[in-house]
Specification:
The complex is a heterodimer of chains A (about 400) and B (about 400). Chain A folds into two domains: about 1-50 and about 195-400, no CATH class; about 60-180, abc type-2 transporter like domain (abc type-2 transporter like fold). Chain A contains 16 helices and five strands. Chain A has helices at about 1-30, 30-35, 40-50, 70-80, 95-105, 115-120, 140-165, 170-180, 195-225, 230-235, 240-265, 280-305, 305-320, 335-345, 345-360, 370-395, and strands spanning about 60-65, 85-90, 110-115, 125-135, 180-190. Chain A has a four-stranded mixed sheet, sandwiched between helices. In chain A, α4 links the parallel β1 (about 60-65) and β2 (about 85-90). In chain A, α1 packs across α2, α9 (about 195-225) packs antiparallel against α11 and α11 packs antiparallel against α16 (about 370-395). The radius of gyration of chain A is 29 Å and the shape is elongated. The mean pLDDT of chain A is about 90. Chain B is an alpha/beta fold. Chain B folds into two domains: about 20-55 and about 195-390, no CATH class; about 60-180, abc type-2 transporter like fold, CATH 3.40.1710.10. Chain B has 15 helices and five strands. In chain B, α3 links the parallel β1 and β2 (about 90-95). In chain B, α6 crosses α7 (about 175-180), α8 (about 195-225) runs parallel beside α10 (about 270-295) and α8 packs antiparallel against α14 (about 340-350). Chain B is elongated and about 95 Å long. Residues about 1-5 of chain B have low confidence and may be disordered. Classes of the chains: A alpha/beta (about 400), B alpha/beta (about 400). β4 (about 125-135) of chain A pairs parallel with β5 (about 185-190) of chain B.
């Protein structure tokens, strides 16, 4: 019995080594294939980092309709313009002009100051300033709503403070009685203002997830397309096939994981950002995400026996993974069935773990189940892929599908 | 799925007009399952798949906790008001901030408010009292819902307290309200009045879906032609082929603009003729670029391998989800080389905002330029090599 086991292990080790050597030769001979697991991912990661390197959008174009032309209305416009997120680019004389500019997206929002603005305030009555914002551009309008609200609030508080001081209340008493209960907003894990850390860090693994699934589908699918499955798997049999599959996927896995780790270290320590959580834990999870993605692509190729179909499938699963991962739009806001889909995708779980560690500083214990699930998923997909390839190996007539 | 022979297109007749070439190319596409899936199957599938996740549009009842260290009628009032706010739902009232923090890590709540001990006493004595709202800043939309939800609840309670104080000092109720906030801000959401997430993201992503599926389909078809040497063809043949790709692309475009937008009730129909003009320019630019890429790849499956991952960076330079003002300067120029950049911007103006055609004209011109340059390059690179093929 132990002798048989040793033989099995030897057979598997041999096929792993042979397959790995064969894959290395294949990659060395094909600059396209080599590029897609080395410098193209590196370039893609660098591109994403570059897109978000500015961190925070500034100077979003805003127009003004000032029907008052008073020193107070001019003060409000100056205060708006002084907000880093806002740039007053145009003054409109009427609402129709402002609407045209909004429709053409010359400005993202218009602040409208009514006639008798200053006089109404002086008389001690409330006056309303209107912000018309282009809600079809949600990111822009969200940032502008926050900034304009702050600027108008500051002006309003200043006016009230001055009025009360005039009535003889002390500054301290005014401060308290104006707002008996203050709210202090704390964005825990304060990252919402830094998009390089927030979006950049979440998109880089999403990009590598697509590339890894593509690489897995490609490297196995090519053997089927080129009818070289027999040459690759040799005599066949499940053990030898499983070994050959593991050996084949090893190189692209190592290469893509290295790119991912390089990006992870670059975007954190490299930018002087020391996340509160455990970076080693994230690194391990990233390596597992790459493993599960590559084996999923390989299993798709084995099951469909077609390089083209496997790639289409990889695109279908991996390309929208980020959009449905809960980062941009929360899982809690999705209908139940859609949420079930989102939670079946490995990227959804990986990114939750990454955010917990990089931003929230959660204990590692909260995401042990994620790591176990990623390992299990990789193992299951590897078994599935090996079984599908063993079956495919017996049917040379089904090779060569395009 | 398991065809044993590669789909070799039927040999091109040497003499045929534009109409013949168009029909011939269409027939080739119909017989090629892989290309057909990309040009017809994928756009239809994504038209239903993508909006599915955002069907509820607006985030409501985000689970939160209240850490109540005060235990007074005022703190309970704040909790009640918070629970009544449509944005948030109080799942947990606890006396320990640690417990709230752990619930946050486990993902059971998305934020919490801390009501300090002695809040009511401070308010009664006219001392400073602060409720701190701690939301998960790692998730932008959840953060916003939690902060605004609690701020509204606390603000309402606070205003009630202050107005009562001002009234006690002899002001009338409206007077009291005015002197509390002399300048008020009214915010009006234009074009997407409910500020729905799906309404914002899907109409823009639709243009990306149109581009990526047609780009991959065109490159795959051209790559297949290169493998069998059929890419070398007369200008008429190539124009017919491009026209065939455009025909299917236009059909997908009309499917999105005319049906998917209506089906999901997204902002639409602002300038229907303008939207048609956009499709007339957008689709040919993509088809020609796809054919050019296919000539370069020279391989049927390479198009998928190389283009699949590009969707992600392309989406973030198109200028809808990520403001262009925050892009690095060279990227602000480079992004115009992609048809999707102009396509998304023009579609936003014409479909969602109802702008006149003149507002989208620069984008349409950019698309025509991309289409002309790419089509010219395709015709030049794929012209017949031997003189007998040129007869």
């Amino acid at each position: 019995m132990p002798v048989a086991l040793v033989q099995y292990a030897q057979k598997a080790m041999n096929s792993i080594a042979n397959s790995l050597r064969r894959e290395a030769r294949r990659l060395a001979a094909d600059p396209w294939d080599l590029a897609m697991v080395t410098w193209v991912p590196l370039l893609g990661v660098a591109l994403l980092w570059w897109i978000f390197s500015a961190g925070l959008p500034r100077h979003l174009a805003v127009g003004v309709v000032d029907d008052d032309h008073s020193s107070l209305s001019r003060q409000l416009v100056r205060m708006l313009d002084a907000t880093p997120g806002v740039q007053i680019t145009q003054h409109f004389t009427n609402a129709a002009e402002a609407e045209r500019a909004l429709r053409a997206v010359d400005v993202y929002a218009v602040v409208s100051i009514p006639r008798d603005f200053a006089r109404t305030v002086k008389e001690g009555r409330a006056v309303q300033v209107t912000l018309l914002h282009n809600a079809q551009m949600s990111t822009h309008s969200g940032l502008l709503q926050r900034d304009v609200r702050t600027a108008v609030g500051t002006l309003s508080a200043g006016i009230e403070m001055a009025a009360r001081n005039k009535r003889g209340e002390s500054a301290q008493a005014v401060h308290v009685s104006m707002e008996p209960i203050h709210t202090q907003m704390v964005a825990l894990f304060n990252v919402s203002s830094n998009y390089e850390q927030f979006l950049g860090a979440a998109l880089i693994p999403a990009l590598l997830h697509i590339l890894a699934m593509t690489a897995g589908a490609w490297t196995v699918g090519r053997e089927l397309r080129d009818r070289t499955l027999g040459e690759w798997l040799g005599a066949g049999g499940w053990v030898r096939t499983a070994g050959a599959l593991a050996g084949k996927l090893a190189l692209p896995w190592v290469s893509l994981t290295l790119v991912g780790l390089l990006a992870l270290v670059g975007i954190t320590w490299g930018r002087g950002w020391h996340p509160p959580g455990n970076l080693w834990w994230v690194a391990a999870a990233l390596a597992l995400l790459m493993a599960v993605s590559i084996t999923a692509g390989a299993a798709l190729a084995g099951i469909t026996r077609s390089l083209r179909t496997a790639l289409s499938g990889a695109g279908f699963f991996a390309a929208p993974a980020f959009a449905f991962s809960g980062v941009a739009f929360p899982l809690a806001g999705m209908p139940g069935s859609a949420r079930a889909w989102a939670e079946a995708m490995p990227f959804t779980h990986y990114i939750r773990l990454q955010i917990e560690q990089l931003q929230m500083g959660a204990p590692v214990a909260t995401s042990v189940s994620t790591v176990v699930a990623l390992i299990l998923a990789t193992a299951v997909l590897l078994l599935l892929g090996a079984t599908a390839l063993t079956l495919a190996h017996k049917r040379p007539d089904t090779w060569g599908g395009r | 799925m398991n065809t044993t022979t590669p789909p070799v297109p039927v040999a091109t007749p040497s003499q045929q007009g534009l109409l013949g070439a168009w029909l011939h190319a269409l027939a080739t596409v119909v017989r090629d399952k892989g290309v057909l899936l990309l040009l017809v199957g994928a756009p239809v599938l994504y038209g239903f798949f993508y909006p599915w996740f955002y069907a509820d549009e607006v985030l409501t009842r985000v689970p939160v906790a209240v850490v109540d260290l005060d235990h007074t009628s005022l703190s309970r009032q704040i909790t009640r008001f918070a629970d009544a706010d449509p944005r948030i739902e109080v799942h947990l009232v606890t006396g320990s901030e640690r417990e709230a923090q752990e619930a946050l890590w486990r993902g059971e709540i998305e934020g919490y408010a801390v009501i300090p001990a002695g809040l009511k006493r401070s308010v009664v004595r006219g001392e400073n009292a602060v409720v701190s709202i701690e939301a998960n800043g790692a998730y932008a939309l959840l953060n916003k819902a939690v902060q605004y939800g609690f701020a509204e609840a606390v603000g309402t309670v606070s205003a009630g307290v202050e107005i009562r104080k001002l009234q006690a000092s002899g002001q009338s109720a409206p007077q009291a309200r005015a002197s509390r906030a002399p300048v008020q801000l009214q915010m009006v959401a234009l074009f997407n009045p409910t500020e729905g997430y799906g309404s914002f993201v899907v109409p823009a992503v639709a243009l990306l879906i149109l581009q990526q599926t047609l780009l991959m389909g065109a490159a795959m078809l051209t790559g297949t032609w290169v493998e069998s040497g059929q890419h070398r063809a007369r200008a008429t043949t190539w124009l017919g082929r491009l026209l065939a790709l455009c025909t299917l692309g236009w059909a997908s475009g009309l499917f999105y603009f005319g049906w998917i937008f209506v089906l999901h009730d997204y902002p639409r129909g602002g300038n229907p003729l303008g939207a048609l003009a956009l499709l007339a320019c957008y689709i040919p630019a993509i088809a020609a670029l796809g054919a050019l890429l296919g000539l370069w790849f020279g391989n049927r499956e390479r198009a998928l391998q190389v283009l699949l991952f590009t969707t992600l960076p392309i989406a973030f330079v198109a200028g809808f989800s990520w403001p262009v003002e925050a892009l690095p300067e060279p990227m602000q120029w480079l992004r115009w080389l992609l048809p999707s950049t102009s396509g998304v911007q023009a579609s936003l103006r014409l479909n969602q905002l109802g702008a006149p055609l003149s507002a989208a004209l620069p984008y349409l011109c950019a698309l025509v330029a991309i289409g002309a340059v790419c089509a010219g390059a395709v015709l030049a690179l794929a012209r017949p090599s031997s003189p007998d093929a040129r007869q």
